[in-house]
């Protein structure tokens, strides 16, 4: 007995190059399924994961690979269908603005990356939407002290004294 079911691969063409096969499969309990595109044995093209709770097919994750490396946007979703995260990749590394959400749809984190390293202003939010923390990075190194707010939006730490946690 195999742990996963794999359906027969299909072949299709895209504007970005030939996808030789898309492998479809599912978990033993059929609660998760996937579609993974390959060029030879290398990930190349769209990859999608689905949940099958309550007999409903819900997209959980969608991303694109170019010659084995994550490229473009990667989207993750809660089982409710709401967006959980939107990440951007360039040649396998996080690049640009990354957004992460609470299950309510409110922004949880906004991070900036350059060549896979935190770079720029990083913002964190309370579940009520109020800003929680702001910190700055330059190519992976923290450059300033954190500025912190409580969940009502009142300034708790202005960055003038070191704090102990990130």
How would you describe this protein?
This protein is an all-beta fold. The chain folds into two domains: 1-67; 95-157. The protein is built from no helices and 18 strands. The protein has strands at residues 5-6, 10-14, 17-26, 32-39, 42-51, 58-66, 69-70, 72-77, 83-90, 93-94, 96-101, 107-114, 117-118, 120-125, 131-138, 141-142, 147-149, 155-157. It is flat. The model is unreliable at 1-16 (pLDDT under 50).
How are the elements arranged and paired?
Elements lengths: L4 E2 L3 E5 L2 E10 L5 E8 L2 E10 L6 E9 L2 E2 L1 E6 L5 E8 L2 E2 L1 E6 L5 E8 L2 E2 L1 E6 L5 E8 L2 E2 L4 E3 L5 E3 L9
Antiparallel strand pairs: 1-3, 2-3, 3-4, 4-5, 5-6, 6-7, 6-8, 8-9, 9-10, 9-11, 11-12, 12-13, 12-14, 14-15, 15-16, 15-17, 17-18
Q: Could you estimate the helical fraction of the residues in percent?
A: under 10%
Which geometry do the CA atoms define? flat
Number of domains: 2
Q: Give the DSSP E fraction (strand runs of 2 or more residues).
A: over 45%
Subunit organisation of the chains? single chain
Largest sheet: 18 strands, antiparallel
Q: What's the overall average pLDDT, rounded?
A: 88
Spans of at least 5 consecutive residues whose pLDDT stays below 50 are: 1-16
The count of helical stretches stands at: 0
Radius of gyration: 20 Å
Instruction: Find the count of extended strands (DSSP E, 2+ residues).
Output: 18
**Termini Cα gap:** 47 Å
H/E element order: EEEEEEEEEEEEEEEEEE
Class of secondary structure makeup: mainly beta
């Amino acid at each position: 007995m195999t742990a996963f079911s794999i359906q027969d691969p299909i072949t299709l063409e895209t504007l970005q190059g030939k996808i030789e096969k898309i492998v479809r499969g599912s978990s033993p309990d059929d609660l998760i399924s996937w579609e993974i595109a390959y060029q030879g044995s290398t990930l190349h093209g769209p990859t999608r994961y689905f949940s099958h709770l309550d007999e409903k097919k819900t997209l959980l994750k969608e991303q694109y690979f170019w010659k084995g490396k994550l490229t473009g946007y990667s989207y993750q979703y809660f089982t409710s269908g709401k967006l959980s995260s939107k990440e951007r990749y360039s040649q396998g590394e996080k690049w640009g603005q990354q957004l992460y959400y609470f299950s309510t749809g409110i922004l949880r984190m906004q991070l900036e990356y350059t060549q896979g390293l935190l770079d720029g202003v990083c913002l964190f939010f309370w579940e009520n939407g109020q800003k929680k923390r702001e910190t700055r990075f330059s190519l992976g190194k923290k450059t300033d002290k954190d500025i912190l707010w409580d969940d009502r939006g009142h300034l708790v730490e202005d960055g003038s004294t070191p704090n102990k946690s990130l």
